[in-house]
């Protein structure tokens, strides 16, 4: 199967981290397609940036129609996820969604641990959006600046291990989700220094996307996730416009 | 004061409805600036369209910086609201938010009544996002097609009155919020045929935007709604890029 | 329009604070009627006192029927609000309700900050009653005694600024509601020392009461906020009895 | 032990019903003191009446200080309960509280069944106030008028049996609480016609009040249910004023 | 009446503590039958042990059918409670359920205080199961080891008093539930050193079981707590198998 | 990898259904071990039976220690899941848990559809236990008897398709979870007759168990899912006793 992993950020270096961890996880026979946004910000961290990133994710998915069996929106707050799930025929999984749902099978209370306090409100609202606040042990973030988004994982590894410890002690976390694409690959590295299970979101998302392809669910044709009726559009990305207008050459 | 009312849809005819009702409501001394999106869809009705509309709303706000004291995002699901509130210095109010918070002061349980069942999931998730599901008496929508979005209010007035009745009987609604910009102006028209208070979202939003200007709250400089730090951007609307990058000529 | 602002406490000095801030906020053309209870306690702070205050608020509203277009119950826990909204034809707004609903338009999580820990349980139950606990960042109160309820605002200004800081740091509050009529007028004074928006409840209530009058909602004639059917009463305030019995000379 | 059962309504005939069922339930050695309010309404059914009734309940408790070991506020919506629990030293139980907490030990989901749709909003808010909405199977009320509050139990017995059936079928109720003092004594009469347990609120309240006396809990001296500090009062019931002011002759 | 108090643990010494406190509480005329499990663990403290204990409780109840009017499952997490309530005709009460529901009548927020941090997750999930998390002030446990489960009450009395203080200060607890059968009898001993009401679970359970017998609720014959239809079984306790298969000699 | 799929029921015919669907789903290289309980009931359907089944599941897992990499408890209500996750070192997944978490990635609101109304309360409490009631569109069950648990899937296929339709129309379900091991294999058969995605629980559980093995999470050594300390036991299954006592020959 072909999985499209789309990074709605413009940081190719982060895409490379994601790609490395995805390759380490993917099943034999899974082909990975990586895509980095050519517009937006280097790293989404706020509500406004997530709003833009959601639109960008839809554009990226529209452009790649026909090339993949399932897609992963590789930013932790899952920008554009609901719209993508409604608009397109293939299963789409968010990094946060995959991470926290997987974590739910490893314990009762999961903590979200990340590297920047700026991310906290967005991540909190993302957990609320998924209806899982009742199982959230807390969101724990570092508060000091970092040097390079593509290397924050190495730079802050020790501090993140300590923060996982806080999540366990103060939040009674049964499991930790390392949040944010820049932390891809960190979970296996620190696993033996954190005394509860640690979930790598990229690995979780790859497995969950594969799961959805294997289960071969049909696209809804009624209800809230059916494909919207064709509609005139203007001023949007050409591929997205074609898809939304359901022009004959692109209909699914 | 100057209120910017932005319609993130491309339907100028809907903007005119909004404008008429806003003018009927606005206080003496309130100047109204109306703006219709030049890209997107004629009428946002799905999660995907709301995702796009959220981005569009941010663009429109960025372009008009310096011209207004508060803004209204005039689409019921409040696309882009959180991001707008964080990114810009002026108060920003959503049509749904203003309608349902106002309704909370007129009863215990509010119903959302609208003209298309397609809108239901988006509206439901909007009420959840605002944390007010506990007071929601239900979302009641017509299920049959309509002819013209700009005239749906007149076309369906009788059926909407009947639907308000259902919301009261079946949902035990204490108050009804007429949802969606195309219904602007309908509340006063049908008020004497609905035996509980009916809220016009545009009128509510105008009053609430005026309220926020009158209270003169400061812009947060810490926490989750502080203006995000400057960040490199690419490929976005020029005004939005300038604002996000905080280039000297545009800093607030 | 005429707004009745009723203080269900017996402290005329607090009513004067309320009046000053209300006058500073009210729109041109809004006439303010101030009323101080002639029975009860100087300052409601407990559940028992709020129970009494709720009854007192109904009496005060009954006595002033015909004189006002909307009313404000000017005690933060909103004593008697539900009953008042049901019993009388004019819109009625509570100080807490107006403050927290307004705060919801200025951020995601609001903190309630006040001057006495005695108030904390009542305020907490008030937020629960309004169904907004999911957005509450916490209730933060001073714990030391104060000298004079009418001057607590000046006496404790510095400490309240510090407490707002705690609410922001420890509660991740996006906005602060200064709670309690004795703090009327403090928000604008300390606004530049608190790095998030601060809401003055009296100002919020005046604007919200004006909003409700401007929207001209009808009185419910069915459902849970319709006026109760006439009923025999005994031993109550004469005006309230007349109103509840719907004697011909007083029917609305 | 001596239990004070206070009816905050003015209907002596209802008090007699309560008394009969209480006597049938009370343990040997329990002395029952019955008290009917001399002011208010014949039967509380709305928020406004409950507000008044809450105050009345406090007055009645203040007047009888020294005469009882525990008290029951014998109106289903528990008017004045929180204030009473805070103000006085003896345990105080509400009719609704006792009924629904007892029902929780007889099944997972309880229905509230009563004789008048007017009562529904008050009862719903009462269940919310107790934090037990998550276990509520629904509130089911008759919708037609009744002749005599003191005989509604006999008049509507058959219809209430049918309504219990609806609660079981439509609400998946595991247990039914017959709500309202006028239904005292009905549960044992209809028990063999309702296929799940039926709780009589007066019986439940008598048992729960006895339980609290037997457990001999101390009065809180700190926290939210400590007795409030003495405070000047004016214009209230003399006994209540003495108690709130903690004048030497009445201190507990 | 005859109350069966069953200890699903194998510690006879704990059963003796329970028995002593139950005898001190029981009404005249209540006969107590005590039963200690002959299999399982000395003291249930984890989810796995509670799972086993739930099964054991059902076995014990099946073996004693015909001997009792109501039963108490005397372990704080209420193992097997739902199944017992469904399977058997007599009322069954859990120690936690009785303790926390009783506590709800003594304040708004109850804390659970116990002697071992191992118990915390089980107790938390028990409160969630009962739908009362909204009233939980927190679960507070000692963290250090104890010597003898049957004497932990005496050994840790001072530390538990201090922990009650933490629950009040940090959790704003209005009432404390001393959790776990080994703490039976401690509440009256420390009551004057804890400034809010303290609930003894065994005493609460005895009173509540008596209450249920006195109310004489019928066994459900429809719905979720009706006795399950007869079913073939294999490999279980003979008495339990007979009961589940509803063999003629044992039908209720 | 080796997956143990344990059926805590005694119906070998149901195990065969499970096995067939699991084999159809499992990845190449996944070895399936099937195990049917030798004690209990043919098909768990009530709380009491689930309590017994939870204990049985722990016994089965203890006996097979050393033989598998992850386990699936193949009964929809997930009997014994929490205890198993805590007691053993390998990942353990429940059928309900896997089904509903997977469904969460295919829509916003999931319905649970099953063949017997007896199952409804158990399933509802299971969804509550997992903290996902906020996303539940309802539990929809057939109400008429079935002939053979091993053939109910074929016997009721048409009626279950119709019931899925009800779940979509009345519950606004975005996705349907076919609940209960006897329905294993039905989802792909009826998929083209149900207009939203349908989840097969056995397939979902196989994929999720594989996911957990691939992610290689460590066993918690602190917190609520650490392996409990060794403890004396008596009267239990020998393998379970050895494991709980951590005798040298069996330590993990």
Helix content of chain A: 40-55%
Q: Please, what is the average pLDDT of chain A?
A: 96
Biggest interface:
A-F, 57 and 57 residues
Low-confidence stretches of chain A: none
Q: Strand order across the biggest sheet of chain A?
A: 2-1-3-4
Q: Major sheet of chain A, described briefly?
A: 4 strands, parallel
What proportion of the residues of chain A form beta strands (DSSP E)? 5-15%
How many angstroms does the end-to-end distance of chain A come to? Answer: 18 Å
Multimer state: homohexamer
The DSSP helix count of chain A reads 10
The beta-strand count of chain A equals: 8
Radius of gyration of chain A: 18 Å
Following the backbone from N to C, one meets helices and strands of chain A in this order, namely EHEHEHEHEHEHHEHEHH
Please outline what is shown here.
The structure is a homohexamer of 252-residue chains. The first copy, chain A, is α/β, with parallel strands linked by helices. Chain A contains 10 helices and 8 strands.
What topology does this entry show?
Six copies of one chain form a homohexamer.
Chain A: E1 2-7, H1 12-25, E2 31-36, H2 47-63, E3 70-73, H3 81-87, E4 92-94, H4 95-104, E5 110-114, H5 120-129, E6 136-141, H6 152-155, H7 157-171, E7 175-178, H8 186-190, E8 198-200, H9 201-215, H10 238-245
Parallel strand pairs in A: 1-2, 1-3, 3-4, 5-6, 5-7, 7-8
Helix pairs in contact in A: 1-9, 2-3, 2-10, 4-9
